[in-house]
Amino acid sequence: MSEKAQRDEAAAPAGSPDRAAAAAFRASLAARERQHKPVPFLLSPEFKRMLLFVVAVMALGGAWLQHQWDKVKMKQELEKDRLAWEEKQKAVQAPPQPGAGSEGAVVRWDNMLAQEVDDASLDDVVTDRGFQAIVRHLAHQKEGEGLKPDGDFDYVELLRNPAKHRGTVVSLSGLVNKVYSNIRLESNQGPYDCVYRLYLVDLSGTEGAIVDVLVRPDGIEERQGVEAEAVFIRTHKYESKDGKPVRVPYLIAKEVRKIQRQGRGSIWSVKTTVIVIASLSVLALLILLSGRSGKPGRKPETNATSA
């Protein structure tokens, strides 16, 4: 506005049409200046589009990298399973070994298992000297006593080196695949007059074991998970229903215990937390960037007053 126009406006009486028109004109100029004021780059639509593109590319790239990593891990797991399967097949085909222990090894159970014959039938096992010695020991254990495991059940190692581990106490667990009828002992051992034969398998169904137990396994059904401390006696070999040879460790235990089923674990984990936080952050960023950078400017006043 020129100096003359300012002087004329100042000289005009308050409420006059000239003064009102001047105020409206000033408001129009101010609104026009606000509309043409340059927007900072960080708030500009171009920056928003660029940032959205970068976020989308990063998300797609992350998903692709995760997919490739999963493929690598799966390949490694498959190779690991293949090697484990080959080791099991070699163990199944390993020859029987005579005796109990090797030179310099610890003599277990007064060397009562030295005459065990690997891969032999279990039909007359109750007459076996080593079997009777182990059953007699377990039957006369006092309350609170129990076998102390030397290690965990290792299917491959027991089949490969039965003589080395003969008489070893192992901690094993598995699913009951079949409960055989009781087998009567030649003579009572304390309160026990028979053993109960269980066939156990692991979750993969590729490893098994035959376990004779003294305590009647009441309430234990097929597919029930059980655990026990058992003495490894020898290997046993038989033919499956389809005629294939099967070789498993044979053990003796005083009893088996049910494995209590645990409730499903929570799906919430550190990885889940990170994914949720990242997703919420991206969502918040998208919502923020999709909004308008500023409030809309006021429309210029267009009060028209007649003289």
Distance between the termini: 21 Å
Output the CATH topology of the largest domain: OB fold (Dihydrolipoamide Acetyltransferase, E2P)
- The CATH homologous superfamily of the largest domain: Nucleic acid-binding proteins
Provide the CATH top-level class of the largest domain. Mainly Beta
Mean pLDDT score: 80
How many distinct folded domains?
3
Strand content: 15-25%
* Rg, alpha carbons: 42 Å
CATH architecture of the largest domain: Beta Barrel
**Fraction of helical residues:** 25-40%
- SSE pattern: HHHHEHHEEEEEEH
The tally of helices reads 7
Keywords:
307 residues; alpha+beta; OB fold (Dihydrolipoamide Acetyltransferase, E2P); 3 domains; five-stranded mixed β-barrel
Task: Explain how this protein is built.
The chain is of the alpha+beta class and 307 residues long. The protein has 3 domains: 3-37; 42-87; 100-258, OB fold (Dihydrolipoamide Acetyltransferase, E2P) (Beta Barrel). 38% of the residues lie in helices and 21% in strands. It is built from 7 helices and 7 strands. The protein is elongated, with a radius of gyration of 42 Å.
In short:
The chain is of the alpha+beta class and 307 residues long.
Q: How would you summarize the topology of this molecule?
A:
Layout: H1 3-11, H2 17-35, H3 45-92, H4 129-139, E1 151-152, H5 155-160, H6 162-165, E2 169-189, E3 192-201, E4 208-213, E5 225-239, E6 245-253, E7 257-258, H7 270-290
Parallel strand pairs: 1-2, 4-6
Antiparallel strand pairs: 2-3, 2-5, 3-4, 5-6, 5-7
